[in-house]
Hints:
The protein is α+β, with helices and mostly antiparallel strands. Helix content is about 30%, strand content about 20%.
Amino acid sequence: MLQRVRRSPSRGKTTHGGSASSADTAPIELPTPKLSVGKSLPESLRRRETVRAIGGRKLPLQVLSNLLWAACGVNRPKGPFGALGITAASASNSQEIDLFVAIEDGVYLFDARQHRLLPVVASDLRTMAIGPRQKNVVMKAPAQLIYVVDIDRLVHTSGFQEPGLRDPEVQKSYYFVDTGLIAGNVYLFAASQGLAAWFHNCDRVGLGKKLKLRSDQRVLFAQSVGYPAARTAGRA
Ligand SMILES: Cc1cc2nc3c(=O)[nH]c(=O)nc-3n(C[C@H](O)[C@H](O)[C@H](O)COP(=O)(O)O)c2cc1C
């Protein structure tokens, strides 16, 4: 069970359509990211790969914090166009991709600005994040990152205004590229830390319903993260 820190609900405004049960509405404050230990960038690039055999050992909260920061955390208070800067580039700095994090306890929305997790659903949806079409995979990964686009953030970007942001085809190209940039960060972070990562399809419709997404939000992909299975044999 992750440890919760109670705080004023006024800071808990979320951009997703769902809401957690009243018993589980307190955000989880993530510890300050620590990325001082790990393989170098060249070595991480050399080791980057998809690892589908993932053990069940849970990720410590510090590791989850480091992972989410690397994925799309705030890396400078002043980014382009008056918004925060984050570790992944996005079209017009719209930051339209939300990361939902499915762990055993439930599903949380990563709030990069406050570096915390906002509860969304208090049930284990990790199997849906793998989806029914993945063959020969034993679902043990402790964390599933679920990539969700909020198209409203492109249409009403606070960033650079350009007509493409309102064109569905251009929007699609932007949000898939922006997803890939985050996923690439996750792959490299995993390689640097000796973690396993696997980017994959998922049950988009089922997850969209469970997360109670608005009509202008869409589940795109998911990414499993955990410790490589071989290392956790007998422990998971
Ligand atoms: C857009 C995209 C979709 C993918 N979907 C799946 C998937 O549904 N199932 C799966 O097992 N792997 C999936 N993968 C992982 C690729 O199969 C994997 O990245 C590719 O075989 C290259 O292997 P590598 O990542 O180890 O270099 C996907 C990767 C990408 C980029």
